[in-house]
């Protein structure tokens, strides 16, 4: 599948593009915000396209045209203010969803946050971040796209183990998960039609990625 | 109608409770965040109820039970960060909408912002505020409530003139409007069934409130 990685220059995004490149069965394009981010991807033989989540739906539609899938790993991050969380994590994601709909991109994988769907389980210190993720997820669920919403626990930079635990119907315990494993799960979801229209929490665990996803 | 004014202690909210009190045909209750805000309203003979938009839907449901209408004039304001814009203006409004639905409160009047429905017309400097208002409005439109969304231009503290201009189908020019006139329009909408399921921009103009609303 021709897959656009949004937020490709982020930590999870870089893992995703790398894993897609290694897998070889998909054509991955990194959506980057500026030409300066190009070198990193070109040195790895990964194509890029320049676009900004602050752009209009119309402009983003042109970016996503011709793709089969979008992996949304973008976030304004903790270095900018909550105003950018609103504009990127919520409104940017929503514009991408609309752009995908009008451009006929059917598949949309979203990186959300652990228990973003349950207000009572939000981390009070970054509750505003959960608001943004929650509303973006709801927008995606209401869309006509074949979505998968991956809601990872605390993100860490340790190397991935490819061993995970997922929770969909039941709420699992809070935990951490390496960004590499989040990326691995996203790439696995792209290949697994049974993950469409699904939403699940993700922490590190002791189950193989394929096995865990098969139980969704 | 038994009407709950959410954000009653805000500038528009105070005008709304005052006008409802003067009109006399509705029972107005001011929703306030703390006991300290009580004196202002009690001195004017206006009932109060203490609740916080950071509370759960379940808790807010108990607050809104028995009301016929909600006028939502709350906003975290420019003194707090955009994190509170997310939590109050967006998530707080959404929780109130859900609470109204489960409690069987049918009528919901929302104070939004001029052209909140059109991204291309957002004020770039406070675009995050427009994101919050836009998503809250969308949430309300998708609800089963009889909504009216009032989208005022630049808010000023001048005394109201009761002369306005509204735009619904066509986009009108940008302008200002006094908070008192916004409150006057909200109270008029409460009495006018034809304003249900309507959304309109509002600036000061030269038309009487009733006449303008009749043209919706």
Automatic annotation (TrEMBL), chains A, B:
<feature type="domain" description="NAD(P)-binding">
    <location>
        <begin position="7"/>
        <end position="192"/>
    </location>
</feature>
<dbReference type="InterPro" id="IPR016040">
    <property type="entry name" value="NAD(P)-bd_dom"/>
</dbReference>
<dbReference type="InterPro" id="IPR036291">
    <property type="entry name" value="NAD(P)-bd_dom_sf"/>
</dbReference>
<dbReference type="Pfam" id="PF13460">
    <property type="entry name" value="NAD_binding_10"/>
</dbReference>
<protein>
    <submittedName>
        <fullName>SDR family oxidoreductase</fullName>
    </submittedName>
</protein>
